[in-house]
Specification:
By secondary structure, the protein is α+β, with helices and mostly antiparallel strands. The chain contains eleven helices and ten strands. The longest helix is centred in the middle third of the chain and has 18 residues.
Length: 296
């Protein structure tokens, strides 16, 4: 396509395929298939211009990049895991330096589109989003995988499907990532502190560890860690970790990878009974019922 809404040129990939739709009324949604290969180069500068929009990246594979500071210097190189997202506000533009290959989808999401989706659906009316850095997002994984086949054709006939997926993406972001800290005025972790805490918990997701360890990883005092985390994540660290453990358990159940007792042990539960109790608290059903429903 030759529409002016793709971001491929910003990533040094001017021929990157992309799709465009107006899913509700006037505001445009665009998604670009980004497959950047550095081929031995030390890095690649990516600059996104200032825009009244958000930029969302979904990573199909692990990647690494660093922010480019206003003085042109580089920030800390950070890892972005497979299955995670990066969501940034483009009000001031954004610049990063890729230091690894990149296999991803890049979305340009105008603020006007979120306002249209909020009026069109039951999405929250608060359309200010909190920036995310390396957030594991299973919903976006499914939506990103649903988009990939649309890039295989010439784009004709894809608009109805693309429009539905676009609305689903915007509604999901509005539900999952509202800027709670701004709305509530609570003292909150910074984006990087939140990422560091979550990275630590993911690295140790099936282990028992004190909250002080996650607080230390985020570089914040333990006494303010839980409230600061909850202000931005909407859940306590323990609640967030439990949901992450259950999401991993779901993958094992779908793949038929072991008995419930085995999955319980792999996911850090003392026994199958406690695993079933936690699974039911999150999903409303037992692991066996959830697996049966999925396989139907």
């Amino acid at each position: 396509m030759t529409e002016p809404n793709g971001v491929g040129a910003c990533f040094g990939e001017p021929n990157a395929p992309f799709l465009v739709a107006r899913p509700v009324r006037d505001a445009r949604f665009s998604v670009t298939r980004l497959q950047c290969r550095l081929n031995g180069a030390p890095g690649r500068l990516v600059s996104l211009p200032a825009d009244d929009a958000y930029f969302l990246m979904f990573y199909f594979d692990d990647a690494a990049h660093c922010d480019v500071l206003p003085d042109g210097g580089g920030g800390q190189v950070r890892r972005y895991r497979q299955g995670s997202i990066c969501l940034v506000d483009l009000a001031q533009g954004a610049s990063v330096r890729l230091v690894s290959d990149l296999d991803s989808l890049g979305f340009r999401l105008p603020r006007a589109l979120f306002r249209e989706v909020a009026g069109y659906s039951n999405a929250p009316t608060l359309t200010s989003l909190r920036c995310r850095r390396g957030e594991i997002d299973d919903v976006m994984l499914n939506l990103a995988q649903a988009l990939l086949p649309l890039f295989a054709g010439d784009g004709r006939g894809a608009d109805p499907v693309l429009g539905h997926i676009a609305v689903a993406i915007c509604a999901h972001l509005l539900h999952a990532y509202p800027d709670r800290a701004t709305a509530s005025g609570e003292s909150a972790l910074s984006v990087w502190q939140e990422k560091a805490a979550k990275d630590f918990m993911i690295d140790h997701w099936n282990e028992d560890f004190p909250s002080a360890a996650a607080a230390a990883a985020a570089g914040v005092p333990e006494d303010g860690f839980i409230t600061g985390f909850q202000a931005v994540a909407g859940r306590t660290p323990q609640q967030w970790l439990m949901r992450y453990r259950i999401s991993r358990a779901k993958r094992y159940l779908i793949e038929g990878d072991g008995t419930p007792a085995n999955i319980a042990r792999r996911c850090g539960f003392a026994d199958e009974e406690r695993f079933a109790e936690a699974f039911r608290a999150v999903t409303g059903v037992s692991p066996s019922v959830w697996r049966a429903r999925w396989l139907q």
